[in-house]
Design brief:
By secondary structure, this protein is of the alpha/beta class. The protein contains 9 helices and 9 strands.
């Protein structure tokens, strides 16, 4: 785990002793290694259209900005039209394929369930803010046995806007019944860092997810590669 100099910490003007008591998580690449299921869904979708599968690394690089952007990148990669109308026309079929089994191959990152239990026992309210559509996200949390830890979930289709716009994170805080200043956001990517910055909340970077940029180049208040460190990090940020 690592902490950056607290130049960021003062940016939101939060008085000492009024630290965050709600933790909001990204989902894909943060709590869950979900790319195997996304990759399988992309392969099935492309097979129906007469294309060979894309490799896992390519699909991993497409993850993070929501399903429409994922699909736009997939269509472009195989040489199909990737304009907004073409993406919208293809979305229902892709969503049906992926939604049928969003967690068949996905796995929690090591230590996630224990960390969530520890945070709940310590009195933190927990939520999820993801660009994954809401229904597959809910099913994934349930199938992986962690749905009961979360009091709120905002998906990529819950609002008209998606991350990195701060609206989904603000919405998640409202669902939790807390002020935005009470939130720490935990994510793995440049999109998550930009969301936290736009919302002016503290950001904890999980370094083992799907980021494309070196850790040092992503603004964060703390970083971790092991979820066993998370309770200590958020307790320090809340003190």
């Amino acid at each position: 785990m690592s902490f950056v100099p607290d130049a960021l910490a003062g940016a939101n003007g939060r008085p000492a002793g009024q630290g965050p008591r709600a933790i909001v998580f990204d989902l894909d690449g943060t709590l869950v290694d979900s790319v195997p299921d996304i990759h399988a869904a992309v392969a099935a979708f492309l097979a129906e259209r007469g294309h060979p599968p894309l490799d896992l690394a390519t699909v991993t690089g497409f993850v993070g900005n929501g399903v429409p952007v994922l699909l736009e990148r997939v269509l472009r990669a195989v040489g199909e039209a990737a304009d907004p109308a073409s993406v919208q026309a293809a979305l229902p079929r892709f969503n049906a394929i992926y939604g049928a089994a969003p967690a068949a191959l996905s796995r929690l990152y090591p230590g996630v369930a224990t960390a969530l239990a520890t945070l709940c026992e310590a009195g933190f309210s927990l939520g999820v803010c993801t660009n994954k559509p809401e229904e597959p996200a809910r099913r994934m949390l349930k199938d992986l046995g962690i749905a009961g830890f979360f009091a709120a979930l905002t998906g990529g289709d819950s609002l008209p806007l998606r991350k990195p716009d701060p609206a989904p994170l603000r919405h998640t805080a409202a669902l939790l019944g807390v002020e935005l200043a009470a939130v720490t956001y935990v994510g793995d990517s440049e999109v998550d860092a930009a969301t936290a910055a736009a919302a002016e909340v503290r950001f904890v970077l999980f370094t083992e997810g799907y980021r494309k940029t070196p850790v040092a180049e992503i603004a964060h208040h703390a970083a971790l590669g092991d979820f066993a460190d998370l309770p200590g990090i958020v307790a320090a940020l809340a003190s």
